[in-house]
Design goal:
The chain has 478 residues and is an alpha+beta fold. Helices cover 53% and strands 13% of the residues. It has helices at residues 6-12, 16-28, 37-44, 59-70, 118-123, 150-156, 165-171, 174-186, 192-201, 210-221, 227-235, 239-242, 244-247, 263-275, 281-289, 294-297, 311-325, 332-343, 346-352, 357-367, 371-380, 387-411, 422-429, 435-449, 457-470, and strands at residues 31-35, 50-56, 74-79, 84-89, 92-98, 100-104, 111-115, 133-135, 144-145, 158-159, 189-190, 254-255, 258-259, 299-301, 305-307. The structure holds cytidine-5'-triphosphate.
């Protein structure tokens, strides 16, 4: 956060568009302000694309007048139902809205809207840091209007509602998710009173569409240290409402003095680890879900202790169910997460043992182009506090990665295409499509993956003839 005087604010609003907006407002005799995220991000020195303008009067009339002033190249879009308008000019998007006073009914996010003053408008905003306004009219250009101490809160890194938080959250319960999202993205602390209100109002999240909740969740997952958001979501009780499967990962059980780890905190550690390596939202999702089936697969076995057999496969099955319920995309992104969850134990199993060429080839065959992401996930998954053990795994992973590279160059397994096709097999032996053809095809594949033959046509064909002979099959033409 930086301190900005009026002179400095003026300089920051040096782009001609701000002067043009101010002049248009002066011409119409209206007050106008840049507000919300754009102002917050000026102080935080974060890049911000969307410019939101509040006009004390008609936002639509302002946008239309600005459009006329800018002439050619300005595109004005009016959203009559919402009383808003947008002006696109060069690479900028400016949203206009009239200052509003809003009241809400208890079971809907749809407000009853009336015209209001700037103060009314600031009152109805979600957080003090989002309720800052800077005047754009010529005589007051660069003047900051900060009725709730938003700049102080930026300085102290606090997320707080401008009004009684019970009112702010009850008016629009999505703001509870936004509260935690901003605290996570900005690494801010949630004010105590605001936090207590999150706890009290959490059930109201039920009136929010799952798409919007997922949208905020994705932003939390994309934050630099996403665990912070999940810990806050858990502490206020929202997590058990929106994502109970994660809460089920919590807890440590001991029997005969043997404990398993707390899989919730382990998962969050994996998510934070991976977030240092990738901004790929879906790879981060895979980290969040990699152990999701541990609670359902947990068993106590007197000899082995706590086991979670097949949690990767059961987890793989849970992914589409969770994505569907949470209104996340049911497309190739989901399939990718599913695949990584299903395969996440494989590199560890290889690295725990002798790293054989055959095991690495098989892994490469199954992971295909997602092999690098899978390795990134598995490295993030090593959260052992025993540094010797951790180092051993990481060294073995290095070896797996090296072998992957060597074998890939040699054998081109990543996007495996059988060197002898099913058609060719049918043609050679005069066979119809049948189980035998399938068996011969997979025998060739296994021989390649086990390193018995190279991934090339002629050796594969020779191997095929040999195998077929053992099955009593002879080629049609000698
Ligand atoms: N706002 C609000 N309540 C909401 C959504 C938005 O009060 N549920 C207000 C806030 O003042 C916010 C502004 O509308 O600053 C713009 O909202 P939005 O574009 O969603 O957020 P930004 O603050 O711009 O931040 P980001 O772009 O990171 O979402």
């Amino acid at each position: 956060m930086i301190e900005l005087t009026r002179e400095e604010l003026k300089r920051h609003l040096g782009a001609p568009i701000f002067g043009q907006v101010g002049d248009t407002a002066d011409e119409l005799g209206l007050e106008c302000y840049v507000v919300g995220g754009y102002v917050r991000d000026l102080f935080l020195q974060r890049p911000s694309q969307d410019i939101d303008i509040v006009v004390v009067g008609s936002g639509i009339a302002m946008a239309e007048a600005l459009g006329r002033r800018l002439g050619h190249g300005a595109k004005v879009a009016v959203f009559k139902n919402f009383g808003t308008a947008q002006v696109k000019y060069r690479d900028m998007e400016v949203e206009f809205v009239g200052a509003r006073k809003e009241s809400y009914s208890r079971d809907s996010r749809k407000p009853i809207v009336e015209d209001g003053t700037l103060e009314d408008d600031q009152n109805r905003r979600d957080f003090t840091i989002n309720a800052l306004a800077i005047c754009l009219n010529r005589t007051r250009f660069g003047e900051l209007v900060d009725p709730f101490g938003g700049v102080d809160d930026l300085r102290e890194r606090v997320v707080r509602t401008p009004l009684d938080p019970d009112i702010t959250f009850s008016d629009d319960p999505l703001r509870m998710m936004r509260c935690i999202r901003f605290a996570t993205q900005l690494n801010f602390h949630i004010d105590d009173e605001t936090f207590e209100s999150l706890c009290r109002n959490r059930e109201r999240i039920g009136i929010i569409s799952r798409e919007r909740v997922a949208d905020e969740l994705n932003k939390i997952i994309l934050a630099p240290t996403p665990s912070k958001g999940f810990i806050d979501l858990d502490r206020c009780g929202l997590l058990s409402l929106i994502f109970p499967e994660l809460v089920a990962l919590q807890g440590v059980e001991a029997r005969n003095g043997r404990k398993h780890k707390d899989n919730f905190y382990h998962t969050l550690e994996v998510l934070d680890n991976i977030s240092q390596r990738t901004d790929n939202l879906w790879l981060r999702w895979a980290a969040l879900l990699h152990d999701i089936a541990k609670p359902t697969t947990k068993r106590w076995e007197p000899k082995a202790g706590w086991t979670f057999h097949n949690h990767n496969f059961i987890g793989e099955k849970m992914v589409p169910v969770l994505f569907k319920r949470m209104k996340l995309p049911m497309n190739e992104k989901m399939k990718y997460v599913q695949k990584l969850v299903g395969l996440h134990m494989r590199p560890i199993a290889i690295a725990d043992d002798e790293v054989t060429d055959s095991a690495v080839r098989r892994l490469l065959f199954e992971a295909g182009d997602d092999i690098d992401d899978l390795m990134t996930l598995c490295e993030a998954d090593i959260t052992s506090k025993n540094s010797e053990r951790k180092q051993r795994f990481l060294n073995n992973f290095k070896l797996v990665r090296r072998k992957l590279k060597d074998l890939e160059e040699k054998d081109r397994i990543r996007n495996f295409q059988p060197p002898v096709s099913g058609e060719e097999i049918m043609e050679i032996f005069g066979l119809p499509p049948s189980r035998e053809v399938g068996a011969l095809k997979s025998a060739i594949k296994d021989a390649i993956l086990d390193g018995v033959i190279p991934n090339e046509h002629d050796p594969a064909r020779a191997y095929l003839l040999e195998r077929a002979k053992k099955m009593g099959l002879e080629p049609r033409h000698g």
